[in-house]
Amino acid sequence: MHIYNRQQIADQVKLDAAALEAVEAGFAALGRGEVEMPPILSMNIAESNGEVDVKTAHIRGWPRFAIKISPGFFDNPALGLPSLNGLMLLFSAKTGLVDAVLFDEGYLTDIRTALAGAIAAKHLSRSNAQSVAVIGAGLQAELQVAALRLVRDIREVHVYSRDRHKAETYAAHMQTSYGLSVSVHDSAASACKQADIVVTTTPAREPVLHWADLPEGVHVTAMGSDNPHKNELQASILANADVLVVDRLSQSRALGELHHSPDLQREVFELGNLICNQQIARSNDQQITVCDLTGTGVQDTAIANYAARLLEGA
């Protein structure tokens, strides 16, 4: 058994095309019905504004399966601590023995979450998309844009955060680190006006994005709603979008955006099905597409297997 720390893992696993391919392969296997993935075990720790999720999945034919423990404590930044933490345990799919402990402190979760957003945009956004609006100004606001650059020629960013100072700090960082043109806005509606892609990256309990905010032809990725009390999208967005996609239908209904629209009567696709069937969901550049990402155990097993291969060869 090997134990790897965050730095060892980060030295090997990058936000790059190879990692994206690994996570996309996991989604494709899910779409083909080759994955055993139980519901998420989730526990809220209300007095500390915290939550803990346990996710797992086995992909048939893959050498290992992962069990991930992922705490999220959202008051931590005020204490000088990260909001997210955790680790992944890798087991042999043949013997059940522990192969490795990936004490990544949430790093692999951050990477696979960002890559899932890029995969959604790859299959749903317009191919000529260049402008992205980001709602929120935390780490995922950065990583989602960085990952999008793997699949689209992103040139400008529009950001809105309830905390203006955080938005301005984010803008300066994205300009310096990525060479992007970044504009800070006073509302989500303003940020979205010229966007080809919109990404919501918040732990909001009430919608931060409304149907009236969305321009023609935009793609929306909502990645913040992963608990029943979270809600980023107005219900009319789910009802009116031309194409609605989720990472896992049962999860979105239990704890994602679909949880807040139990009476919604419309066709909803799973991202893995689109990938494995090479299905083109968007039929023209005027359609509005939406993808709700709740975060799946198959992403964790995919990125953990990928990380283990790299670490073993280091």
UniProtKB/TrEMBL annotation:
Top EC category: lyase
Keywords (A to Z) from UniProt: Lyase
InterPro entries for the chain: NAD(P)-bd_dom_sf, ODC_Mu_crystall, ODC_N
Any one Gene Ontology cellular component term annotated for this protein: cytoplasm
Enzyme Commission number, as recorded: 4.3.1.-
UniProt GO MF annotations: lyase activity
Keyword Transcription set for record: no
Protein name listed in UniProt: Uncharacterized cyclodeaminase y4tK
